[in-house]
Design a protein that fits this description.
The two termini are 18 Å apart. The chain is globular. It has a single domain, classed as Alpha/Beta hydrolase fold, catalytic domain (Rossmann fold, 3-Layer(aba) Sandwich), CATH 3.40.50.1820. The chain is 44% helix and 15% strand. It is α/β, with parallel strands linked by helices. It is built from ten helices and six strands; from the N terminus they run βαβαβαβαααααβαβα. The protein has a six-stranded parallel sheet, sandwiched between helices.
């Protein structure tokens, strides 16, 4: 029986972005692609986006599908949710792999990232990206997804859901990956988190930026 692998996408993204990686990993894993509430066409929740909301949704999926010996791969925000799950529900997770996950948040960092989520600027300056978001999240309004994500980041900036000491309590084997050309996530915060985790390995993907569509699926498959 294959090991279960649950794949979590990044902020304002969808599981469809991970299909190329999932196809390669399906040789060795029983792969599950998951969309967070309000993403990838899923109904927008009544409550605001939050790491806990996303974590609870993943938890429900794990329990509903009775996933055993579970590895969770999380890209960017998906990696953060995976770590949050590992902290609060360690009995359900056997291994965590993150790629390009930003672990350190404060108000200054959040404000910087929120500037990138200006829906008017996206629609005007990068219409192709706006069109991709519209297709990715239909029938939901992509602008609503982006605005709610901005609110989520603002809240994370005020109170980071995972503090540095929290990682010291996550004893699940972890693999922390970062692209060497990632301009959003720093080596410093990645290394700091890696060092705080009791049972972790770290890997650097060569020639790899943050944007998931520009990540080589074979590289990720190799590391996992």
């Amino acid at each position: 029986m294959k090991t279960s692998l649950l794949m979590l996408h990044g902020a304002i993204g969808a599981s469809s972005q991970l299909k190329a990686i999932a196809e390669q990993l399906s040789i060795n894993y029983e792969v599950h692609l998951f969309d967070f509430p309000g993403h990838g066409g899923k109904d927008l929740p009544v409550e605001p986006f939050s790491i806990k909301l996303f974590s609870d949704a993943v938890l429900s999926y794990i329990q509903k599908n009775n996933l055993q010996k579970l590895t969770i791969f999380g890209y960017s925000m998906g990696g953060y949710v995976a770590m949050y799950l590992a902290k609060h529900h360690p009995q359900l997770v056997d291994r965590v792999v993150t790629l390009g996950t930003k672990f350190h948040w404060n108000e200054t960092i959040a404000a910087k990232e929120i500037k990138m989520l200006d829906t008017a600027a996206i629609a005007t300056k990068v219409p192709a990206f706006a069109a991709a978001l519209a297709e990715m999240h239909a029938p939901n309004d992509w602008k609503e997804v982006v605005l709610r994500t901005a609110d989520l980041l603002a809240e994370m900036g005020k109170d980071n859901p995972l503090k540095p000491d929290d990682y010291k309590e996550i004893k699940i084997p972890s693999l922390i990956l970062l692209g060497d050309r990632d301009k959003m996530v720093t080596f410093e915060e990645t290394i700091a988190t890696y060092k705080n985790l009791p049972d972790a390995q770290m890997g650097v993907l060569p020639g790899t930026p943050h944007i998931i569509e520009q990540v080589n699926p074979s590289l990720v498959t190799y590391f996992i």
